[in-house]
Design goal:
mainly alpha; 8 helices; globular; two-stranded antiparallel ribbon
Length: 178
């Protein structure tokens, strides 16, 4: 498998310019399901495999799970800012540096799984309440430009599936080897 296929096992995200409400509802369901899907996939991973990277030079399963919690917490805050301020400029963070911090390298994945359970429950409650006008609200990302909340929902639905596929690379390999 090529490095590109390992980095983007479900492909790169292609954001529709004007997603329709059915597409957005599907993305919200993806966001809602992520914590459960992660738990299901991680139940297939032997404890001694949690610190294996999904590709050469990639993050370990542990780092991926903690990254999802870090990233989705940041996203939830971005949504709240966009809903309460006019085109707020959000602060990016160095996710590759966060992935090397001691909590990410050492903490049990259950800490982030519990956080994701609660965060995604609250986040989907917020997402389901958004009106079409609120879905068109936006934040300004210094690197990506203006991002509407509708687009961000799609991005984070993809983001969860993307990293779930990374974890599957490890759990599926385990099954083939053992």
């Amino acid at each position: 498998m090529s490095i590109e296929a390992l980095q983007f096992p479900i492909g790169r995200f292609q954001a529709p310019v004007q997603p329709d409400l059915d597409e957005i509802k599907g993305w919200i369901e993806d966001i809602r399901a992520l914590p459960k899907d992660l738990r299901t996939e991680l139940s297939k991973a032997a404890a001694d495999k949690i610190d294996l990277p999904y590709r050469p030079g990639g993050w370990t399963v542990r780092q991926v799970v903690h990254h999802l919690a870090d990233s989705h917490m940041n996203s939830f805050v971005r949504f709240k800012l966009a809903l309460t301020e006019e085109l707020p400029t959000i602060k990016p963070y160095r996710e590759e540096s966060w992935a090397e911090l001691p909590d990410t390298l050492q903490a049990p994945v259950e800490l982030s799984l519990g956080l994701l359970d609660q965060l995604h429950a609250r986040w989907t409650l917020l997402l389901e309440s958004l009106t079409p006008e609120e879905l068109s609200r936006a934040f300004l990302h210094p690197d990506s430009g203006t991002v509407t909340l509708a687009q961000a929902i799609g991005t984070y639905a993809w983001h969860g599936r993307h990293h779930l596929a990374h974890i599957r690379l490890v759990t599926q390999t385990q099954g083939k080897q053992g």
